[in-house]
Give the backbone structure.
Amino acid sequence: MEKGPDVIMQDLTPKVYLQTYGCQMNKLDSEVMLGLLAKEGYRCVGRPEEADVILYNTCSVREHAEDKVWSELGFLRALKKEHPEKILGITGCMAQNVKELVFKRAPHVDLVVGTGEEHRIAELIEGIRQGERQTLAVEIDHGRAPDPAVFQTTQRGSQVKAWVEIMAGCDQMCAYCVVPFTRGRERSRPARDILDEVKGLADRGFKEVTLLGQNVNAYGQDLGGEEDFAELLHQLNQRSAISRIRFLTSHPNNATSRLAQVMAEAERVCEHLHLPVQTGSDRILKLMNRGYTVDDYRSLVDEFRSAVPGISITTDLIVGFPTETEEEFAMTLDLVRELEFDSAFLFKYSPRKGTAAYWMRDDVEEEIKKRRHQEILALVQEISLRKHRAQEGSEVEILVERHARKGPQTWVGRARDFRKVVFRGEGSYLGRFVNVRITEGRVDHLLGTPQ
Ligand code: 5AD
Ligand code: SF4
């Protein structure tokens, strides 16, 4: 039998398939893991069937997010049976949350890696390759920020914009939220490491960074209080050459006047604030342990709107928190109407084990949650459409991020206030700043023509 040609053509590069769920922080974690694996010679593939290592980087924020992963794992049972040599791993928030339970419910999984040990991904996979079975790595080093070296190989999904982790974890303990358990206590990265990373990105041609943390406004509190978030923004504005700086997410409790001032003055910092309010009822805010009242929130929005011209303010809202009445839901609608958010992410309350709210009865029926969700969505969309239409005829500078899904001649960019603008244009616009005249406002984007 002639075996020669086959042997020569065999591709020995290890291949990894990685599927990501959840927020931007999780997406960044995936890019970091892919970078660490690429350093060890791995190549990324688009289907689990082609991969030697199959990873799911998971989210726990709502039950639905975990359910999707359980069902994916169900599908993979057959593939793993046929190819027991393939390594199957679960990483991220759900791994941290359910830990060894993954092995109980899905015994074909080889590896469970929590949010604190993802930087060891290559070594953990190697252990399995060497014959270890069912490795559980779920320690969180509460005292330490990640080593800057792990970010050096990050495989960015875009050439134009990049996420930069400025802190991990969350200390807020909102009653509904699993994140303090899945991501641990707040750990800020030293300002110098962040500055170096942003400078490096600017040198490599990136135009925009988004600074990430569960609550960026708490940045520095664990470092002894000398560096705060507003100061970090100020420093990045002064000392880096990146064109645009964004950040996510701000908790109303720590959004300071100094932050508004820096946003107004720092020319690289974009005029967009994502400031989750969650509900328009003081009673529910208290049950949620949010630490502010609707009036406090209203004053903050006033302050940022008057200090930062052109700012857009977006929010998160939860409907159907335990005991939420029809009147309290109506207060949320009223607040949305009054504050005219530029956009909002809407969620139906989902009980999470281990959280304070888990002990309250999830007493708002699913049908009612659905109806409230739809009602609020209709209102949010009506406001967005009205605001977008009001922009017709105006000119705005956008940074072009990517092609639209429609085709090669259609581009997507964003204004400084985070509005999405779609336009047609021949040639290469990727990564360019373009002035666009707005021709039509739609619900979730604007159409325009380059000037
Ligand atoms: N149920 C529904 N929504 C939730 N969020 C966080 N935890 C839950 C939960 N248990 C929402 C909040 C938060 C966003 C990221 O997800 O609105 O701001
Ligand atoms: Fe992100 Fe929260 Fe989901 Fe974790 S649980 S991936 S922090 S949204």
